[in-house]
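Weekly sync, protein design subgroup
Attendees: M.S., D.O., the rotation student, P.L. (late)

Item 1: inverse folding check
M.S. brought a backbone from last month's batch and wanted to see whether the design step gives back something sensible before we order anything. D.O. pointed out we never logged the input encoding, so this time it goes straight into the notes. C-alpha cells as presented (317 positions):
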C-alpha cells in the first residue's frame, strides 16, 4: 500500500502537537509532504517553533515545516494562552528545535506542492484557523484539482461553542477563511466539537500513555496533563476533549467514526454568532451537502490507536 500524501496545517497547541506525533508515527500509511503553521492558539512565531519541536521529538527532522499567516484574513487575531499556556505546548520542556524552518511561505508551499501534484492526490489536514488554506485557494483556485479530501478540525452544533456561546475557536478566529473552504467543492470531513468532546483525555487514558517508554509518549502525557486542567474545570469532566488528533485518527482508522453528509454554512455577519457553524444535520435547509460531519466515535478505540502508535516509535528515547 502506498502512503497517502498529506499536508498538515496547524496552530500547535498541545492537541495539534499530539496530532503531529500521531501522523509521524504512521510513515507506511501517511506521507507528510509538509507541515504548515498558522497563528491561532498562540502567535505564529510559537506555532511554527512548536511544530518543529514535535518533528524533533518524533525523530523526523527531515519533515519540511513552513510558517504561514500571522493573522486571519479580515479579523484581528484571537489566541488561547489561557487554554494552552504561554508557549502553546506547556507540559513539556521547551528547547530550540533542530528541525529547520523552511524559508518559503506556507501559502506558497501549499500552492507549489498542489500545482505539481496529480489530480485528487493530496489530503489537506487543517487543525487550526483556515487562513492558510483559504488564502492558497483564493490565490490559485486550480490547486483544488489536486486535493483528494480536506479533513479538518472545527465547528460545533449540538455541543455549542467553546469560545463564544455559538462558535468553536478555529471557526471563530477566521470565519471568512472557513467560508471559502466550506464552499471549495472538494470532499470535506469535519471533526467538530460534537465528536471531539466524546474523546476525553481522562486520567486512565493519560496514565496508559504515561506508561509508554518512548519520547513521543512522554511528551504526549506531559502535554495532556497540562492541557486537561483548563477544560476539566470548565466542563466538569475527567479530561479535556482531544480535538485535533481526530483528524489523523480518521485517516488511519475511519471506522472509528460515524459521520453524516450534510450542509454546513458559517456566520460571517453577526458579531453575536460570528463563526457559528450551521450544521444542517436533518437536511431541512434544502442546501446541498458539502461536508461529512463527524457525530460519533469509538473513544476507547481512538485511545487504543493513539497509544499503540505512540508505543511504536523506535529509537526515540
Ligand atoms: O476548538 C478547538 C480547536 O481550536 C483545536 O484545534 C485547538 O487546537 C484550537 O486550535
Ligand atoms: Ca488546533
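Designed sequence read out in the meeting:
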Amino acid at each position: 500500500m502506498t502512503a497517502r500524501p498529506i499536508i498538515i496545517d496547524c496552530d500547535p497547541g498541545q492537541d495539534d502537537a499530539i496530532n503531529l506525533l500521531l501522523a509521524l508515527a504512521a510513515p507506511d500509511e501517511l506521507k507528510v509532504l509538509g507541515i504548515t503553521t498558522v497563528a491561532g492558539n498562540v502567535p505564529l512565531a510559537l506555532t511554527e517553533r512548536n511544530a518543529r519541536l514535535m518533528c524533533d521529538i518524533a525523530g523526523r527532522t527531515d519533515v519540511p515545516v513552513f510558517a504561514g499567516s500571522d493573522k486571519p484574513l479580515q479579523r484581528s487575531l484571537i489566541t488561547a494562552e489561557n487554554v494552552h499556556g504561554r508557549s502553546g505546548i506547556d507540559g513539556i520542556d521547551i528547547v530550540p528545535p533542530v528541525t529547520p524552518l523552511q524559508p518559503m511561505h506556507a501559502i506558497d508551499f501549499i500552492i507549489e506542492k498542489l500545482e505539481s501534484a496529480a489530480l485528487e492526490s493530496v489530503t489537506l489536514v487543517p487543525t487550526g484557523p483556515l487562513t492558510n488554506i483559504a488564502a492558497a485557494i483564493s490565490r490559485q483556485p486550480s490547486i483544488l484539482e489536486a486535493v483528494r479530501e480536506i479533513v479538518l478540525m472545527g465547528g460545533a452544533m449540538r455541543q455549542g461553542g467553546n469560545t463564544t456561546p455559538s462558535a468553536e475557536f478555529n471557526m471563530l478566529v477566521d470565519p471568512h477563511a472557513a467560508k471559502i473552504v466550506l464552499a471549495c467543492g472538494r470532499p470535506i470531513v469535519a471533526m467538530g466539537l460534537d465528536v471531539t468532546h466524546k474523546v476525553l483525555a481522562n486520567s486512565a487514558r493519560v496514565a496508559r500513555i504515561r506508561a509508554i517508554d518512548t519520547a513521543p509518549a512522554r511528551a504526549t502525557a506531559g502535554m495532556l496533563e497540562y492541557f486537561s486542567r483548563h477544560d476539566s474545570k470548565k466542563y466538569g469532566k475527567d479530561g479535556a476533549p482531544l480535538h485535533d488528533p481526530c483528524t489523523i485518527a480518521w485517516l488511519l482508522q475511519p471506522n472509528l467514526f460515524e459521520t453524516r453528509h450534510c450542509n454546513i454554512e458559517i456566520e460571517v455577519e453577526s458579531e453575536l454568532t460570528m463563526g457559528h457553524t450551521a450544521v444542517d444535520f436533518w437536511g431541512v435547509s434544502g442546501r446541498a451537502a458539502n461536508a461529512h460531519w463527524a457525530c460519533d466515535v469509538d473513544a476507547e478505540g481512538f485511545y487504543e490507536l493513539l497509544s499503540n502508535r505512540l508505543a511504536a516509535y523506535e529509537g526515540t528515547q
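Discussion: The mean pLDDT is 97. The longest helix spans residues 215-235.
Action: P.L. to compare against the previous round before Friday.
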